[in-house]
Amino acid sequence: MYKLLSLKFGVCNKIIVSKAYPLLYTHTRKMSSFDKLFSKIDELKPTFINRLAKAVEIPAVSSDESLRPMVVKKAEFLLEQLEANGFTDIQRKELGTQPPPVNDENLQLPPVILSRYGNDPAKKTVLVYGHYDVQPASIEDGWESEPFKLVINEEKQLLRARGATDDTGPLTGWINVIQAHREAGIELPVNLITCFEGMEESGSLGLDALIAREATQYFKDVDAVCISDNYWLGAKKPCLTYGLRGCNYYQITINGPAADLHSGIFGGVIAEPMIDLVQVMGTLADSKGNILIKGIEEMVAPITDKESKSYDNIDFSLEDIEAASGSKTSLYQKKEDILMHRWRYPSLSIHGVEGAFSGQGAKTVIPAKVSGKFSIRTVPDIDSDKLTNLVVEHCNKAFKNLGSPNTCVAELIHDGNYWLSDPYNSSFSAAAKATKAVYGVEPDLTREGGSIPITLTFQDELKTSVMLLPMGRGDDGAHSINEKLDISNFMKGMKLMAAYLHYYAESPEK
Ligand SMILES: NCC(=O)N[C@@H](Cc1c[nH]cn1)C(=O)O
Ligand SMILES: [Zn+2]
Ligand SMILES: [Zn+2]
């Protein structure tokens, strides 16, 4: 099916009606149209940084129940921004209460924000997804500045705040792209639908069902899904991403005495939950990066020759991982090994213990109840339910071996599937052209070690392709201290988003 394309640009200001393929107008004309759009993006830089500053000021930490009102406040801020920038059919979708495990049984999930810009049946429709929630952050963790206050570092040319790169910067980028089109008087060549959620960092709870419901409603005409919520592999070269690992998040809760106790009075007399927990946690993985839970390795898809070769041309090195981690602690030295362990093998990470003493000083307490948190990054062909059975069985067995009178419950908190796509469809081609136009290079095609739980759901429910278009760099410190977004990545990232929409509009088919 051919689509009628109406492209009204400030420079040529012509309506071109044609079959979408071959290319409608020359490279030169397109570049001059881009010039106008890109100049407008540059001109609006202070407005865009200001929008980001206001957004990151709201501590929208989805994993902290006490901060749920802040997540909702950030949703409300974004609703205002969409309204002010001409988006229509703006809908605040409520998702009901958060499922267990949760402390407050009546805790409401934050809303999903749907909106559209343009509704022309002659144009293709692109759905852009982003998340407005963030990871926890506190200055005591070692931040150079307050995490929820945007710092504009002129010397290093970067923007620092929790959410700068993950994912408030890219999310506001889409709104900014629309503002730039409007103010430059350039027609958007596609219909744009936004789907912004507030629970991504906590497993996208409630979003699967919403997407399934809206697949034939709000999302019915979507031709492609574009997600800007990951990073370049390193710090120099842009990339397009066609794969993600999944994430199954677990907790092991050990319950003992009725209250926290004095270790001088009760130490050596009662069974300590924390002692049990560290022993169970100690059976999960070794220090060489191996998962010690039986049955997981067998589910991992074997490597093919084609995949083996695909690592050769990727621009990445041991130095990149050392620079991004600020250490020389890599478990692997060869590029291929590092990439494979980041992309195509599972990994187990231990994140922390709820209920344990963690402050400064030397508190002599025996915590009464502790929950150890860990996650497993999943890859093809690991089945999430089978994995959970293996994990729970393993933990129960390890606890039983201790012969402790305490109780132990191992459970899944949330899971999100892995995703692997074809990086040679029209959406990826459009993004590759856009990368060439903005950065002057062909992007690397990469997979990502992190997870975006909803990606596979979009692909399956909307029966459309999904493409990941990262804005930030691999050394941005997402989830870490001093999270940043380089100003050039912010500015060029928005140009990339805009150029992608224009190239995708003229691509032959979906
Ligand atoms: N930018 C994507 C991202 O950070 N995703 C999170 C998703 C997640 C899953 N469970 C908790 N968070 C990630 O950790 O990969
Ligand atoms: Zn993210
Ligand atoms: Zn994240």
TrEMBL record:
Mn(2+) 1 binds at D166, E201, H479. The active site is at D133, E200. InterPro entries: CNDP/DUG1, Cyt/Met_Dipeptidase, Peptidase_M20, Peptidase_M20_dimer. This is Peptidase M20 dimerisation domain-containing protein. Keywords: Hydrolase, Manganese, Metal-binding, Metalloprotease, Protease. It comes from Tetrapisispora phaffii (strain ATCC 24235 / CBS 4417 / NBRC 1672 / NRRL Y-8282 / UCD 70-5). The keyword Endoplasmic reticulum does not apply. The gene is TPHA0N01240. GO terms for molecular function: identical protein binding; metal ion binding; metallodipeptidase activity; omega peptidase activity. Substrate binds at D229, H262, T364, R377, S451, H479. It holds the Pfam family Peptidase_M20. Binds 2 manganese ions per subunit. GO terms for biological process: glutathione catabolic process; proteolysis. Residues 242-400 form the Peptidase M20 dimerisation domain. PANTHER family: BETA-ALA-HIS DIPEPTIDASE, CARNOSINE DIPEPTIDASE 2, ISOFORM A. Mn(2+) 2 binds at H131, D166, D229.
